[in-house]
Write a structure and sequence with these properties.
Length: 213
């Protein structure tokens, strides 16, 4: 990939990654495989499922993505995009991380400054007919859903660095809260420092509908 002639935009880098990912999926990329490729693949859970060819194709794409991310960070190109959603009858434009890109220091500052606005947007969809739940998934992947309150959501958000609305429709809204490295922590929002690298927390607001029989 030759990306030294000019600076690429966030949108262009996203498209470059999409194109490369699709090319790998279609088998349009050729690369040398070791003679013991099948043996290497069989030693990993993913390789056992995908097979050697597909496993090395995934690895090839990841190497390409790593190069793009290094270029992105070196040139301070944002890893954020704008999410447009309608909540409570209002249209919001909110920053959110791009899955395949890294976040720059400036990006984290943007997320931090936008956190309260994202939480406000989420809660604007909550009314007396809304069931507000606090969801938690521990490191063993056990999931718990507990009814909660607006006050607790705001309290919890106070411990976090960033917020992201990942779903917004007429029936349900979901927000993730977290702190620290966005991709490494993977939506970690645990207040407990000891479980900071193992637990995930999110809140969902679902409309309660009465069913007439």
């Amino acid at each position: 990939m030759n990306i030294i002639d000019r600076l690429y935009t966030t949108e262009e880098l996203v498209q470059i990654l999409k194109d490369e990912q699709m090319a790998c999926i279609k088998g349009e990329r050729t690369f040398p495989m070791p003679k013991n490729a099948e043996e290497i693949a069989s030693q990993t859970p993913l390789g056992s499922i995908l097979g050697a060819q597909r496993l090395f194709e995934v690895g090839c794409y990841h190497e390409f993505r790593d190069q793009v991310q290094k270029y992105q960070l070196k040139n301070n190109i944002s890893g954020l995009e704008v999410k447009v959603c309608i909540i409570g009858g209002r249209l919001y434009r909110l920053p959110r991380p791009v899955h395949q890109l890294e976040l720059t220091k400036d990006d984290y500052q943007v997320l931090k400054l936008a956190k309260d606005a994202v939480v406000d947007a989420f809660l604007s969809g909550v009314d007396e007919f809304t069931y507000l739940s606090f969801s938690h998934e521990d490191k063993s992947h056990a999931q718990f859903d507990i009814e909660t309150t607006i006050k607790y959501v705001r309290h919890f958000a106070g411990f976090c660095d960033w917020a992201e609305i990942i779903k917004a429709d007429e029936l349900e809204i979901t927000i993730n809260l977290g702190y620290g490295d966005y991709h490494a922590s993977a939506f970690i929002a645990s207040v407990s420092e000891s479980s900071k690298y193992s637990d995930s927390v999110w809140f969902s607001a679902a409309k309660v509908c009465e069913i007439n029989v």
